[in-house]
Amino acid sequence: MLTVTTVNVNGLRAAAKKGFVPWLAATDADVVCLQEVRAEQSQLPDEVREPAGWHALWAPAAAKGRAGVALLTRKAPERVRTGFGAAEFEDSGRYLEADLPGVTVASLYLPSGEVGTERQEEKERFMAAFLPYLCELRERAAASGREVLVCGDWNIAHHEADLKNWKANRKNAGFLPEERAWLSRVFGEEGGYTDVVRAQHPGQDGPYSWWSYRGRAFDNDAGWRIDYLAATPGLAARTVKALVERAPTHADRWSDHAPVTAVFDL
């Protein structure tokens, strides 16, 4: 079995003080993908920077206090790559991948965007450059008999079922028609990837993976499903289960995102 978890930690130093460390000690995951680390390795406490039993890989952003992704693997990776070949995003702390036996696992933090601003233009440039790389990665892996799993915060709710208040967000970043269409290309014939959580939970709302800290969004389950595990078909077909590790109460949360976990029978 291969168990992979992805979670946007919303600042790893803060998450470490709220419950991330005991969560990591208790998880059965073989691979943990982290996003929005927002710290250099030197700024992290020892038990977070070099957690016992894990090989820790870090890709901080050149812009201090922003973005940053990481991979924690039980087995030593065979190969590691930071970035996906787009010069603009090479040191942005948004993509990190590692080759493990038979599978390439990546941690992704796609820009969130904001309509009418440069942030949205940055998001669009990222998406335009990233989809061809996803296709290349899938084809390269297939040629060598490998599978691919790209995990992370994609910052797009794909369908109405992936967002509680979808009617009010039709003109907002994260649910724009062009963003959703792009994600349909990733999960369609062009990209060839499978949304493993949706495949395991067809025809239902959610399960959501992010809730605003404002109001009672978490208590009312007024969330967004924006954290995905995108698998190549061979790996997706081996999914045993996929779930969101939703905290039992608001007070138990150590991030505004919940860990999303999938188990594969290899």
UniProtKB/TrEMBL annotation:
Pfam families per the UniProt record, alphabetical: Exo_endo_phos
PROSITE patterns with a match to the protein in the record: AP_NUCLEASE_F1_4
Domain Endonuclease/exonuclease/phosphatase residue range list: 6-257
InterPro entries xref list: AP_endonuc_1, Endo/exonu/phosph_ase_sf, Endo/exonuclease/phosphatase, ExoIII-like
Co-factor(s): Mg(2+)
Keywords from the named record: Hydrolase, Magnesium, Metal-binding
Family: Belongs to the DNA repair enzymes AP/ExoA family.
Protein name: Exodeoxyribonuclease III
